[in-house]
Each structure stands twice: as C-alpha cells, then as structure tokens.
C-alpha cells in the first residue's frame, strides 16, 4: 500500500469531496449551487444520511453524522461511515478524495479517514488478475486548520501497521512458517527503525526453551524466537514495556488433533498476537514514540508427527518448571510461558501478552471484544480499557482470583497445561502468570482476530486487532511508567 495523505487548509476546486456534516449545518459556505443545496436539504429532511451529487467532472458526497453524547461512540460512527464510503469510492473509481469537515471536530475526520482506509484493505497476493479487485484510491487530502501534521503521520503509520499485520495473518502456512515470519518482522524493523534479533532452533535449544521446543517437535519446520527492541535515547520510561505475542503459525492441535468440524480451517491465524506486536513496534518506531518497548515473539506450527509431544509428557520450561502436557492443543500457553520468563531479563515495568489463546474467550464474548485479565496494578488495566474504548478494540476484564490457581495442579509435575472446561480463558491466563514475577496483563483475542464474515472496516479475514489498542495505550499513557531521571 502506498497511500498518500496530505493536510490542506482549503478545499481544492474540481476535486471530489466527502463532507462530514450535522443535520442542521449550513452548507452555503461550500461551493454548491442553489439547486444542489436545495436537493441536499430535501434529502436530509427525508432522513437520508448520505447524499451523492455528480456534477460533470466531480462527485460531492455529503455524510450526516448523528450526534452522540459519548465521544467513543461518535468516533466509531465516523469509522463506520468511512467504511461505507470505501465502497462508493471504489464504485466510482476515485484515485483521489478530499475529506472536509463542516462540523468543526477534526477528530471525527481522522476517524472517518481511518474507517475508509482500513476498509480499502484486501489480500490479493494469490489472485492472477488483481487490477479489478484492487482499490483505486491513491491519495487522501484532509482539509483542516485544526489538525497538525503529526496527527496525519499517526494515521498513516497506524494504517500501514494494520495492513502489514493483516497481510502476515492472511498468509497461509505454505508461505508464512516460523522462519518466514521472523524474516517478515526483520523487514518491518528495517522499514521503521526498531532492532530485530532472531534466535534459531540451535539457540532456542541452548536456552532450553522447553515449551517452544515441545510444541515444535511435531513440525518439519524449525521454531524461531524473535526479539524486537525500541530503546530510544529520549525515552521517558526507565524500565521497558514488554509485549509478548503468540506466534503459532498453524495450530492443528498436535496429537490432540482439533476435534470439531471446521475448527482447523483458519488456524493460520493463530499467530495474530505475534503479528499484532510486530505491527505495534512498527508504528511506535516509525513515529519515534519516546517509550522503551520490547517485543518477544515465540513462533512455530503445532502438528502431529511421530516425534510430536504426546499427552502425558512432562517437559521442562525455560524457567526450570516442569509441565505435564495433558492436551497438545493447549500449545499457545507453552510457547508464551517461555517468552514471559525470558522477559524477566529486561526487568520490565509491565508485560502485556496478546494471543489467540482459547476458544473459551471466543465463546464468552464472540468477535466483539478482547478478553483481558491480569495481576498488574489496576491503573494499567484502567488505561488499557480506556484505550480500547477510544479505538473501539474493547476489553472486557475477567477475574483473576487465586482460587483458579488450584485447577492447574498436576499429579506428577509443577503444573499441568489444562484445567477443567469451566473458566478456560482464565485458567489459561493463570498458567501464564506462573511464568513471570513481573506485573502481567493478558489479552485473549481468539474471538476478534480473524472474521469469517466481513464487519465494516475490520473487513473479512485478519483484523489486526490489538495494533490500534496497544499503540494508543503506549502513546497516550507515558505517565503510567516510572520516569527515567
Ligand atoms: N488456537 C487455539 C484457540 C482458538 C480457538 C483460537 C478458536 C481462535 C479460535 C488454542 O491453541 C486452543 O486450541 N485452545 C484450546 C485449549 C484447550 C485444549 C484447553 C481451546 O480453547 O479449545
Ligand atoms: Zn491449540
Ligand atoms: Zn493455538
């Protein structure tokens, strides 16, 4: 994607424009004829929210945004309206569009642009003829004297990050194995400026990352462990934020093969958490955000094979703890556990992991949000929930009571990797908690990471959920972190 974004002060003549308006806005200051103004007024009076006018060489689109008292809802309405306009612009083959704000709230213009651009995404790599499917838009001009250039840079970098992440997740295992995944992350590092180190199988063996190696045992491809660092000189925080992402590039379940019909079809998306973390690093580095952030991405596929881990096996994890693997389909927690222990090396202020971890989370709230939980001080979760509402990647906090810990006791090892069915999302989080002594927030994105049916600007397939959430959190809450004096 190479979309051009510009910020201009006045509406250029002769170009097609989308106007965001309130029902009662006076439009006479814009270049409409009297007949056009009359037509627009009548249409709106009849309850139309969208009015399109074609005057020879250009289109004017008028979009009514109904007032919402909740600013989060208002922004989401704008994103959704932007998404609807994506279709219109494609139909009319616009390569350029102007966005103008008659309401006087440039925030809404940004949200509209975000919804529009994120809806233009599609994954075309494997089609022979791409030209028909490709979205024609190449340039967006945003008209505002209230926005500054930085806001536009943020919009651009974040949209790029979402596109990269969606591409990574939509790629099938036939291309995106663990090694290819780490190569792709290296590219993102080069494009944006964060550093990347990839541990190969030999290094992972020497580190004794028993969880990652156990899951990889049935695979024909080696695992990787990718370490990304963004440590700018002007960072305001002393101790880094560490992000950990689940990078299961395909989940068959292993020998505990996925049991139900169709449950394996989209398991190429089981690395959505890892991809999201890479996307966040891209945006943070590209925009030179002055916060130290580290990303850790354990990656492998999970398959049955003669050599695969069998139910009942006991493995030794990176931190030396033993785990009885009673179900090889609960593999995400095994690779994440090693990464969480490894994160200790950075003495982090906070660890956030993001993972398509449990069907249980998806059953609880569907594709509508993220299941969150953790043991970090409540101010962190509060801020994260705030960001979630702000970008509409909402978080529901689940309890993290110590009573759940008991459910993971094994007869023969320090821990077992599954508990009873009840509270499955929570016991998975509880398993992770055992592998770090640092404050942890765990985000389960099994529901919203990959959609079988299109949903507005999230599209169909990979959504890249988590990217906009974590970026917003990092950018807007520097005060949460202990200062580097
Ligand atoms: N990758 C799955 C979770 C998942 C399910 C993601 C549906 C996206 C959509 C995970 O590895 C898994 O298989 N979890 C098991 C755990 C169980 C065996 C304790 C599950 O949730 O069924
Ligand atoms: Zn699984
Ligand atoms: Zn999985």
Averaged pLDDT: 97
SS-based class: alpha/beta
- Termini Cα gap: 40 Å
Radius of gyration: 24 Å
Ligands and ions found: ligand BES, zinc ion
Q: Give the tally of β-strands.
A: 20
Could you characterize the architecture of this molecule?
The protein has 485 residues and is of the alpha/beta class. It folds into 2 domains: 4-147, Leucine Aminopeptidase, subunit E, domain 1, CATH 3.40.220; 171-480, 3-Layer(aba) Sandwich (Aminopeptidase). 34% of the residues lie in helices and 22% in strands. The chain has helices spanning 34-45, 71-91, 106-119, 149-170, 178-192, 201-207, 210-216, 272-286, 332-343, 359-365, 378-391, 424-433, 467-476, and strands spanning 4-8, 17-21, 50-55, 58-64, 96-101, 139-143, 195-199, 224-230, 241-245, 247-251, 293-302, 313-316, 322-325, 350-355, 370-374, 395-397, 415-416, 440-444, 450-455, 459-462. Strands 7, 8, 9, 10, 11, 14, 15, 16 and 18 form a 9-stranded mixed β-sheet that branches. A 6-stranded mixed β-sheet has the order 1-6-5-2-4-3, with helices on both faces. A 3-stranded mixed β-sheet has the order 12-13-17, covered by helices on one side. Strand 5 (96-101), helix 3 and strand 6 (139-143) form a beta-alpha-beta unit. Helix 9 (332-343) runs parallel beside helix 12 and helix 11 (378-391) crosses helix 13. The longest helix has 22 residues, at 149-170. The chain starts with a strand and ends in a 9-residue tail after the last helix. The chain binds ligand BES and zinc ion (2 copies). Residues 251, 270, 327, 329-332, 356-360, 362, 418, 424, 446 line the site of ligand BES.
């Amino acid at each position: 994607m190479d979309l051009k974004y510009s910020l201009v002060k006045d509406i250029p003549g002769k170009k097609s424009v989308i106007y965001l308006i309130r029902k009662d806005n006076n439009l006479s200051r814009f270049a409409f004829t009297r007949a056009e103004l009359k037509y627009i007024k009548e249409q709106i009076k009849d309850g139309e929210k969208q009015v399109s006018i074609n005057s020879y060489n250009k289109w004017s689109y008028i979009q009514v945004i109904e007032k919402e008292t909740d600013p989060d809802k208002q922004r989401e309405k704008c994103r959704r309206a932007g998404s609807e306009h994506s279709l219109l612009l494609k139909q009319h083959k616009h390569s350029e569009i102007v966005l103008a704000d008659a309401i006087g709230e440039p925030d809404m213009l940004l949200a509209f642009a975000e919804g529009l651009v994120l809806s233009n995404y599609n994954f075309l790599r494997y089609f022979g003829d791409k030209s028909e499917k490709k979205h024609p838009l190449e340039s967006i001009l945003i008209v505002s004297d209230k926005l500054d250039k930085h806001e536009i840079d943020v919009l651009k970098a974040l949209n790029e990050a979402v596109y990269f992440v969606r591409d990574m997740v939509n790629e099938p295992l036939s291309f995106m194995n663990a090694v290819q995944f780490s190569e792709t992350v290296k590219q993102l590092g080069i494009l944006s400026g964060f550093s990347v180190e990839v541990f190969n199988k030999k290094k992972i063996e020497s580190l004794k990352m028993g969880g990652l190696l156990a899951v990889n045992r049935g695979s024909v491809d080696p695992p990787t462990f990718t370490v990304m660092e963004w440590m700018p000189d002007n960072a305001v925080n002393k101790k880094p934020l560490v992000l950990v992402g689940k990078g299961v590039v395909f989940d068959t379940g292993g020998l505990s093969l996925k049991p139900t019909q169709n449950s394996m079809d989209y398991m190429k998306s089981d690395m959505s958490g890892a991809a999201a973390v890479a996307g966040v690093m891209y945006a943070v580095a590209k925009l030179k955000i002055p916060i130290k952030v580290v990303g850790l991405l354990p990656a492998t596929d999970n398959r049955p094979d003669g050599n695969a881990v069998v139910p009942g096996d006991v493995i030794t994890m990176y931190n030396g703890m033993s785990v009885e693997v009673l179900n090889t389909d609960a593999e995400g927690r095994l690779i994440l556990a090693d990464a969480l222990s490894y994160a200790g090396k950075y003495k982090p202020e906070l660890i956030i992991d993001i993972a398509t971890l449990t069907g249980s989370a998806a059953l609880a709230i569907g594709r509508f949000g993220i299941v969150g939980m953790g043991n970090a001080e409540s101010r962190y979760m509060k801020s994260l929930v705030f960001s979630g509402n702000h970008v509409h990647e909402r978080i529901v906090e689940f309890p993290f009571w110590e009573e759940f810990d008991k459910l993971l006791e094994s007869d023969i090892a320090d821990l077992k990797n599954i508990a009873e069915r009840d509270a499955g999302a929570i016991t998975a989080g509880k398993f992770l908690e055992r592998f770090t002594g640092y404050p942890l927030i765990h985000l389960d994105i099994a529901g919203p990471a990959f959609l079988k049916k299109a949903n507005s600007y999230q599209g169909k397939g990979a959504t890249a959920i988590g990217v906009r959430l974590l970026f917003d959190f990092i950018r807007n809450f520097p005060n949460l972190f202990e200062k580097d004096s």
